[in-house]
Amino acid sequence: MTPSSPRSGPFRxxxxxxxxxxxxxxxARTLEADAVILDLExxxxxEFKAQARENVREALQTPWRVxxxxxxxxxGSEWAHDDRELALTxxxxxxxxxxxxxxxxxxxxxxxxxxxxxxxxxxxxLSAPAIAAVPGVAGxxxxxxxxxxxxxxxxxxxxxxLLHALSAVVLAARxxxxxxxxxxxxxxxxPDGFARECEQGRTLGFxxxxxxxxxxxxxANAAFGVSDAEAAEAHALIAAWDEAxxxxxSVAPHRGALVEQMHVDEAQDTLRLWEGxxxxxxx
Length: 283
Hints:
The protein is of the alpha/beta class. The chain has eleven helices and ten strands. It has two domains: 13-224, Phosphoenolpyruvate-binding domains (TIM Barrel); 228-277, no CATH class.
């Protein structure tokens, strides 16, 4: 067990924290995000890369309540090798690799550490099924800022130009049994817009959302979590199924609908998520 990954669990909210901001790193320890990404890439200016790496190394020496991933600089950059060495030796729970565009580059790393591939370009979206299928890849994270720029799309409150790409990433990740995580919402002064994106992401099939501000964590946890009412309904559905099975029936009536095994499996997934987040400040 590494210092940064005391447990496995949900990834409803995953907080990016700039590696060069010591106060932000310490603040992150007190927050209710399900995981933290200590960022050495976009959030850190070139002149602060080395100091950020040392900050992250030091931060990983002390146990965290949640898994801590490290976002390294991209393959081919002057910082890439040292960043990866840090993630491998300092006790990170996983490595976040930006702008992944093909499965071969991921295969070639062979790090032995869970890898989270960022899908941020048109080529990355088209290659997402192959990337997700690589052994060692734990999940796919969408980066819509770079993707929107590459697509030459216009901003839209419902992310309409990006819906195909978002769904493609979810499909690729779920087909490979990996976790898809939705992109950040840039405007931290727009809680209503953030809540809409969370609801949309949950509807599309994302497991959680990456966030950039502490004020976004609670909304993400709520949107991608399970309420007590939803858990109670899952219990009721399973009870109806168990009763039907005890009577030798292969389907069960429940609230005007017929319940089959797939509905029971979904209810059990709901309860696992609910149980995994109880008592952690979430749902």
